[in-house]
Design a protein that fits this description.
The complex is a heterodimer.
Chain A lengths: L3 E4 L2 E5 L4 E7 L6 E7 L6 E7 L4 E4 L2 E6 L4 E6 L8 E9 L2 E4 L3 E6 L1
Parallel strand pairs in A: 2-11
Antiparallel strand pairs in A: 1-3, 3-8, 4-5, 4-9, 6-7, 7-8, 9-10, 9-11
Chain B lengths: L3 E4 L2 E4 L5 E7 L5 E7 L5 E9 L2 E4 L6 E3 L9 E3 L8 E8 L8 E2 L3 E5 L1
Parallel strand pairs in B: 2-11
Antiparallel strand pairs in B: 1-3, 3-8, 4-5, 4-9, 5-6, 7-8, 9-10, 9-11
Classes of the chains: A mainly beta, B mainly beta.
Amino acid sequence: GENVEQHPSTLSVQEGDSAVIKCTYSDSASNYFPWYKQELGKGPQLIIDIRSNVGEKKDQRIAVTLNKTAKHFSLHITETQPEDSAVYFCAGEGDYKLSFGAGTTVTVRA
Amino acid sequence: NAGVTQTPKFQVLKTGQSMTLQCAQDMNHEYMSWYRQDPGMGLRLIHYSVGAGITDQGEVPNGYNVSRSTTEDFPLRLLSAAPSQTSVYFCASSPIVQNQPQHFGDGTRLSIL
């Protein structure tokens, strides 16, 4: 099955700086890569996703890049704000099954 | 719009007890799934269903049963609770078309003593 690794496990950034989270995956058949944000006491919420026929996708301050050859994808958050503090998960999907990374706890320092 | 609703939100059980975690969605999604979340391990797929009457195992199915008698509901049963099943459980749903985001409930926090 799919194995998704995520780095770093924790990330502390100054407000206004950028945050980058990187993930690698093992199954070359995976073709859908969502990113989820989880706030305390809540379920994961989709923030952006990318499909295998696209190399980059952007939504305001959030962007995701995908390198299918190298089997890695990354989340970029620019101009970080305190409300960006949360746990972020990457995931890879093949055959209707999502495999998640272990998560990155992002803390934005005021 | 309720989305995905999970009940109960919290539960404490004794080892050996059984219980059912409820999950309901009102989006007419064919695909539903159950995950458990443990510290440092992300979310792991327990069971999933691609439609009423169809279920299949995920990555960590042992000790859990599911059934899917309706499109809306997908209950998860713990047959004989063990301390290793202490976790946060999330239910999710999505349309059956591939590459669609899954919608998650807010979880059930389960402690087994």
